[in-house]
Design brief:
The protein is α/β, with parallel strands linked by helices. The chain has helices at residues 8-18, 22-25, 27-40, 59-67, 80-89, 95-103, 142-152, 170-179, 191-200, 220-229, 246-257; strands at residues 49-53, 72-77, 110-114, 127-133, 153-164, 204-217, 265-277, 292-293, 299-303. Strands 1, 2, 3, 4, 5, 6, 7, 8 and 9 form a nine-stranded mixed sheet that branches. The protein is globular, with a radius of gyration of 20 Å. The two termini are 28 Å apart. 40% of the residues are buried.
C-alpha cells in the first residue's frame, strides 16, 4: 500500500496489461502462494464457500479447487484479463458435471467476479474461508477492506492471507531516493499495524508471521522487467509520470550497484502471513484481545537470471 493515495484505475490497467506475462515472471508469487497453502494443512476446515481475493492468473485458485473438492469457489480480481487467465487454468467440467450443475446450480461452482476487494459484491455471512495471496498490498484502505471481509464471512469463518511488509524492495527504494524525491516504490504496512487492523475490523485470535525472501538478479534491468511483468509498479496518484531519462537511469543503476554481493543484485521482499477468525459475530470487539505474534526471521535467496 502506498503512503499516497492509490490510483485504482492504474492498478487495474497494470494488471490487465500484465496478465499475459504474469506467470513467466511470478517466481516469488508462486513460492509465497505455496507457503500459504501449506498453512491450510494445519486448519481443520471444510468450507462450504471459499473466496479467493486477488486471484490473478489462478495459481492459488487451482490449488484451492483441488483441495476443497465439495466447496463453492468465488475468484475475485480487479482486472478482467486476470480473471480470463484464471478461468483458463481451471479444469473444464465433464459432461456429467455440467449436467449435475444444471440440476443443482449451487453444486461445485467456481464464480469469477471482477470487483474491487474494498467493495465486495457479496452477501453478508456468505463465505467460510477468505483467502488472499499477495493482493492486500493493493488495497486503497486496508482496514476498510478487512471490515468488508469480516462482513462477508460466516460466523466461525477463517481469513488467511499473505502480503508485503515495509522492507519490501528496500534496495530499489533507496536507489530511487538518490535520483529524486518522487515516490517510485509503494510503501507497505507493518505487521503489527495489520494485526491491530484485524482486531478493529472485528476478527478474533489473529496470528501473524514474517519472513524475508531475497531474489537475486544479474542486473537492474532484469529486476525491473520482472516487476513490470507482474504488473507491480508504483500506482500512487503522486507518482512521477513518464520514463526516466538516460541520466537518471544511469544514476539509479549506479546507486543500486552498491548492493551487489557475490556478483548478484539482491531484491528483498518482506512477506507477512496472517490468519484470523470471524468469531461468533454477535458482539463488537473492545480491542482488548491478545494478538499472538509468531515472527519468523527465515531468510532465503532465490536466484533469477
Amino acid at each position: 500500500m502506498s503512503e499516497s493515495e492509490l490510483d485504482i484505475a492504474e492498478v487495474r490497467r497494470a494488471f490487465d496489461h500484465a496478465a499475459a506475462s504474469y506467470d513467466a515472471h511470478a517466481v516469488l508469487q508462486r513460492e509465497v502462494c505455496e507457503r500459504l497453502l501449506e498453512r491450510l494443512d494445519f486448519m481443520k476446515l471444510q468450507p462450504g464457500r471459499v473466496l479467493d481475493v486477488g486471484t490473478g492468473t489462478g495459481y492459488g485458485l487451482a490449488h484451492l479447487h483441488g483441495r476443497y473438492a465439495e466447496s463453492e469457489l468465488c475468484a475475485l480480481d480487479i482486472a478482467p484479463a486476470m480473471l480470463a487467465a484464471s478461468r483458463a487454468r481451471l479444469p473444464q467440467p465433464t459432461w456429467a458435471q455440467r449436467a449435475l450443475q444444471r440440476l443443482n446450480p449451487s453444486s461445485r461452482l467456481t464464480h469469477l467476479v471482477c470487483a474491487d476487494m474494498e467493495r465486495l459484491p457479496l452477501a453478508p455471512n456468505s463465505m467460510n474461508l477468505v483467502w488472499s495471496s499477495l493482493a492486500l498490498q493493493w488495497a486503497h484502505d486496508l482496514e476498510a477492506t478487512l471490515k468488508g471481509f469480516h462482513q462477508a464471512m460466516a460466523p466461525g469463518g477463517l481469513l488467511m492471507f499473505a502480503t508485503f511488509g515495509p522492507d519490501t524492495l528496500k534496495e530499489l527504494r533507496a536507489a530511487f531516493a538518490v535520483v529524486d524525491d518522487a515516490p517510485h516504490v509503494n510503501r507497505f504496512i507493518d505487521l503489527h499495524d495489520i494485526g491491530d487492523m484485524l482486531i478493529h475490523a472485528g476478527f478474533s485470535s489473529p496470528v501473524m508471521e514474517m519472513e524475508m525472501l531475497t531474489l537475486t538478479y544479474a542486473d537492474l534491468k532484469t529486476l525491473m522487467r520482472d516487476l513490470k511483468g507482474i504488473g507491480a509498479h508504483n500506482a500512487a496518484t503522486t507518482r512521477r509520470r513518464g520514463l526516466l531519462g538516460k541520466t537518471a537511469w544511469t544514476r539509479l543503476e549506479q546507486a543500486y550497484e552498491s548492493n551487489r554481493c557475490e556478483g548478484r543484485l539482491p531484491a528483498t521482499f518482506e512477506v507477512i502471513y496472517g490468519h484470523a477468525w470471524a468469531g461468533d459475530k454477535t458482539r463488537r470487539d473492545d480491542g482488548r484481545q491478545v494478538i499472538q505474534f509468531a515472527i519468523g526471521e527465515r531468510r532465503r535467496k532465490m536466484g533469477r537470471v
